[in-house]
Amino acid sequence: MDPVGYRGRFAPTPSGPLHLGSLVTALGSFLDARAHQGDWLVRIDDVDPYRCRAGAADQILRSLDALGLHWDGQVVYQSQLEDRYQEGLDALSKRDLLYACDCPRRGRQGPSPPAHTIYQGAYREKGQSFVAGQNALRLRVGEAIIEGMDTLKGHFRVHLQEAVGDLIVYRRDQVPAYHLATVLDDAAAGITHIVRGEDLFPATPGQIHLQHLLGFAIPRYAHTPLLVDSSGAKLSKRTLAEEAEIKAPTQCLRELLDYLAHPAPKDLDQASTEDILTWAIAQWSMERLTGVGPIAIATSSP
Length: 302
Hints:
There is one protein chain. It is built from 8 helices and 12 strands. The protein has 2 domains: 156 residues, 3-Layer(aba) Sandwich (Rossmann fold); 105 residues, Rossmann fold. Helices cover 29% and strands 17% of the residues. Strands 1-2-3 form a 3-stranded parallel sheet. By secondary structure, it is an alpha/beta fold. It starts with 6 loop residues before the first strand and ends in a 6-residue tail after the last strand.
């Protein structure tokens, strides 16, 4: 057992039902928490109303329950935490770390700059007044260099200004940005370990910078391999990945364990979800995923 206590979490966006890639992340974070005799929390990241779909949150929770992935405590919904996000913005603003920015961002109606575009600071020194609904707020990252250790990806060192530029923390459509919301929520929940998909690894240095600025403890991170389709594209709702309709929970669990490099033995072919999870918790070793690249699958529901 981790001597300081382990608190992990799964934090899906309810933009649709879970697909296999989401379930692999959920199971990996669950097993890592339970193998450390820790807590596993669920947070619904519904702060962005434009991405959320009616009924999706309940559907996600039913899928987790069907697989036996039972969470600790109450489910937290970001849409109920506006005061927390405002307090975080106020704390950064008091230190003169924020500025208003009119630069375009991917929105509901138009395109965005390429994903790899690095913000060049065009509005950093303009002193523009912030008007909700008209411009965004960015965080001055200065010359911050972030170093850290990812359980699977190893040591990293990132110069934030060169890698990503100043971070958006509040969007022009009056939605707290992902970086700020997740950092504040993880800290409030006392999260010590974050297991999530490798696609979020580039977001980690910026989040660690925010954690430093706000005086929060830094969780331990592990970014698991992505599931990709036959073209090499990450399974996601945006690429129309098929819903993981869980008609046979035990079969689905076995498939997910295969993707996590923990294939269940034949003598568990007729086992219950509880027995499969008990075996998986006892066998769990995150290190089995070290060096594993994207995993290509046939996109069919289990």
